[in-house]
Amino acid sequence: MDLKAREEEYFFKTYKRLDIEIARGEGCWLISKTGERYLDLFGGLAVNSLGYNHPKINEAIRTQINKYIHLSNLFLQESQVDLAELLIKNTGYKKIFFSNSGTEAMEGTIKLARKWGKEKGKSELIAFHGSFHGRTMGALSITGREKYRNGYEPFLQGSIFSTYNDAQELISKVNQKTLAVVLEFIQGEGGINEADAQFVQTISELREKFGFLLIADEIQSGIGRTGKFFAFNHLNIAPDVVVIAKPLGGGLPLGAFLGNERVADVFTYGVHGTTFGGNPVACSAGIATIKEIVENGGMQNAENIGSYLKSKFNELKLKYPNLIKDVRGRGCMLGIELKHEGESLVTEMLKNKVLINCTNTNVIRLLPPLILTKDEADFAIEQFDSIFSTLNK
Q1: Is 1's pLDDT higher than 90?
Q2: Which segment of 3-17, 128-142, 255-269, 316-330 scores lowest on mean pLDDT?
Q3: Engineering a disulfide at 231: which of 40, 87, 185, 191 sits with its beta carbon 3.0 to 4.6 angstroms away?
């Protein structure tokens, strides 16, 4: 059997795989076993912020492997502490917990919030329609997309949904029992929807009045992707807890949540833990990743190349008004909303050697590596233009 047949034989049907066998990656490009080169504009779904085979990440991994690959979290681990210090210094938060993934970090955050709110009589979590916070039962309980929820009921008690960017509806649902509001400042799976400033201001005012926690899901939008370290840094607000993952481990499994002084002393020894979370090799790769993004221009390039791409897509919107409905997002987290379903465009772009992703049926989601160059962006735009021109006819 070939690889595809073997995969179908052995795996549960959870992933609709692309029909390409990848041999290696270089920068923003993936090279197939037959030698074809593909420009990757969804970068491991926001994981590969520095592309593939980045020398500093590879070196950090090799160095740590030669020391040890795993230690129990009962031991002090230098790479863990170094990465924690780097994140705390760059974000201003007080405490951190490392996990294996974004979903697991969200689960830990829910536990942190519940423990914080227990004696305060607060138990209700408010999330938003269109949101995506993970696939485990706690995270799924606050994920506002029926596509992922259907069939897994019943969910976590006290989970409430409100309409994204609808301040009046949120006001009607917040009360003294509200434990936390969980928000993606840019919804990823939901179609690259941005929280508007007035909506965020309302959340801030409600938090002041009712004393709940604000939890920011920055799993997809965080660590420089939008041109700032966090997406909420574009707005005048500071969440109490921030959940991060995807690019954090430089391609290795790593997630975390950061908390401010309100939650800094909630956990005590033994009440939460993980076997593999904060793996020393992943943390070493994370240190190299954060330094490149923050200190060596990755975040600035994300802002610059993202603005360039957005301007080019807006030109295509003017050129093809019957095909493109909207262009939105920040930095290297962009959405092109089409006036038709998007999977056919994904297929055509694949033929043109550009990898893109479609979410929410008709939104092309772009999450390119932050190292994307202008020449590579121009190549992608040329392919979009060519296909739109054909569709337009």
Answers
A1: no
A2: 3-17
A3: 185
Query: What are the C-alpha distances in Å from 373 to residues 133, 297, 351?
Result: 30, 13, 21
Cβ count within 10 A of residue 264: 11
Backbone angles phi, psi at 34, to 5 degrees: -95, 5
Could you tell me if residue 377 is inside a domain?
no
Residues in Cβ contact with 97 at an 8 Å cutoff, skipping those fewer than 6 apart: 105, 108, 112, 256, 257, 267, 272, 277
Residues 129, 171, single domain; the answer is yes
Q: Identify which of 161, 101, 96 has the alpha carbon closest to the alpha carbon of residue 128.
A: 161
pTM: 0.97
Q: Per the structure, how many domains does the chain have?
A: 2
Q: List the domain range (segments joined by +) for residue 23.
A: 1-43
At 198-247, the pLDDT tens digits run: 999 999 999 999 999 999 999 999 999 999 999 999 999 999 999 999 99
Cα 149 from chain centre: 19
Residues 192 and 270 in one domain: yes
Q: Is the dihedral of CA 27, 30, 32, 34 positive or negative?
A: negative
CA–CA distance, 320 with 309 (Å, rounded to integer): 16
